[in-house]
């Protein structure tokens, strides 16, 4: 297809998307986003981004092994001169995906098919689009966030970092242990915890293997420059960091789950865990039940009735099709032929007991069921390759729903 035809197709779909959104807005009185984003663009001149070393490695490592219920990072709290009464400066507006995306966006094809075949996007919209980005920034501001899980969590890390305008830092595998990032050295030496490597990284990294640890942060080179940015400013610079720790199967990661959670708690203010998708057979599903109980028990020890530091995220819905059976989850006994719709009431075996364990151990569960109808958003599969109906295209229309679910869960506390 020529470039001209592609551009016409994108224009057509964008128009259909706006019409679909306006129709919903008229029905539910949801405010539009124009005023919000115009305001953001007007304030863009206040932001100065200094691109140097990654701030994530500069965060102070807590020495106290006991659970703490403070949301504030140690570095952020060490700046008493910060004008916390000032509004947060708008973030640098980035569209996802960027060069870090594992999968490119499939928005155009997914929207085009859904609207022309079903008359609507077949994808939920944000409940409060006018305030969504501001609420997301407010929650992350001044906090260190740790995401722990498999490749779906890695995708979440990538799109969330991009959404918040953060610089990602990936590290290739190294032979010398003393060359590891500080937090991995701490995990290994003090807590006897290691993390498996990521063999499939973002698409701009075409060769080599990468550590099962990635960080993203604001692009400030030093705390003094961070303070300087706020002098005389009408807003305070947005300030946060996110770290991703890779794990597929908990028992293969560590024999001491308590120590693992303790480590994560000491390098972050908010912990978000997920395991599930790699527990692929009956025996492993039995292990998953045991692993979930153990993980959520220790996770819940860092929460109180009023405040939570530790959360668990549901495994995202899958949409594998096997002949005439819309199973959803992957079936190792048969060959998947396509991605397609599944029963909306279908419950993933990875999420079946989560609510019960969450209630028992006081761990808030971040829901992912809103992606049940998003079967078109897995992208196109190359001819001769088995379909990947678990990883989603890295587009804001999909992943903002998960970001919103996080905010909803936090605000329920």
UniProtKB/TrEMBL annotation:
* Keywords of the record: Membrane, Transmembrane, Transmembrane helix
Q: Where are the transmembrane segments?
A: 44-62
Tell me the superkingdom of the source: Eukaryota
> What is the name of the protein in this document?
SGNH domain-containing protein
Q: Which organism is it from?
A: Chaetoceros tenuissimus
């Amino acid at each position: 297809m020529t470039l001209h035809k592609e551009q016409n197709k994108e224009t057509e779909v964008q128009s259909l998307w706006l019409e679909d959104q306006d129709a919903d807005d008229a029905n539910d009185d949801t405010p539009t986003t124009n005023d919000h984003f115009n305001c953001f663009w007007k304030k863009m001149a206040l932001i100065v981004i200094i691109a140097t070393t990654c701030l994530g490695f500069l965060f102070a490592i807590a020495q106290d092994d006991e659970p703490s219920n403070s949301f504030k990072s140690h570095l952020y709290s060490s700046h008493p001169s910060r004008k916390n009464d000032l509004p947060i400066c708008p973030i640098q507006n980035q569209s996802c995906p960027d060069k870090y995306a594992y999968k490119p966006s499939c928005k155009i094809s997914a929207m085009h098919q859904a609207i022309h075949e079903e008359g609507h996007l077949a994808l939920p919209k944000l409940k409060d689009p006018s305030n969504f980005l501001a609420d997301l920034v407010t929650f992350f501001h001044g906090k260190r966030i740790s995401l722990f899980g498999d490749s779906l969590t890695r995708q979440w890390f990538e799109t969330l970092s991009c959404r918040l305008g953060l610089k990602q830092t990936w590290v290739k595998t190294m032979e010398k242990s003393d060359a590891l990032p500080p937090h991995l050295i701490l995990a290994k030496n003090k807590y006897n915890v290691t993390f498996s490597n990521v063999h499939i990284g973002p698409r701009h990294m075409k060769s080599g293997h990468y550590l099962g640890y990635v960080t993203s942060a604001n692009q400030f080179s030093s705390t003094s420059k961070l303070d300087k940015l706020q002098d005389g400013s009408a807003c305070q610079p947005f300030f946060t960091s996110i770290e991703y720790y890779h794990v597929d199967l908990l028992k293969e990661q560590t024999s001491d789950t308590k120590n693992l959670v303790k480590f994560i708690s000491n390098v972050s203010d908010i912990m978000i865990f997920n395991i599930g998708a790699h527990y692929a057979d009956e025996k492993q599903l039995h292990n998953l039940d045991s692993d979930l109980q153990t993980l959520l028990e220790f996770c819940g020890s860092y929460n109180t009735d009023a405040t939570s530091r530790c959360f668990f995220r549901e495994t995202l819905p899958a949409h594998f099709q096997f002949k005439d059976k819309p199973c959803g989850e992957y079936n190792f006994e048969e060959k998947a032929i396509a991605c397609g719709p599944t029963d909306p009431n279908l419950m993933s075996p990875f999420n079946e007991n989560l609510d019960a364990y969450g209630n028992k151990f006081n761990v808030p569960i971040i829901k992912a069921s809103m992606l049940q109808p998003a079967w078109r958003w897995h992208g196109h599969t190359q001819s001769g390759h088995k379909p990947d109906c678990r990883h989603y295209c890295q587009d804001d229309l999909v992943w903002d729903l998960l970001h919103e679910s996080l905010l909803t869960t936090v605000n329920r506390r």
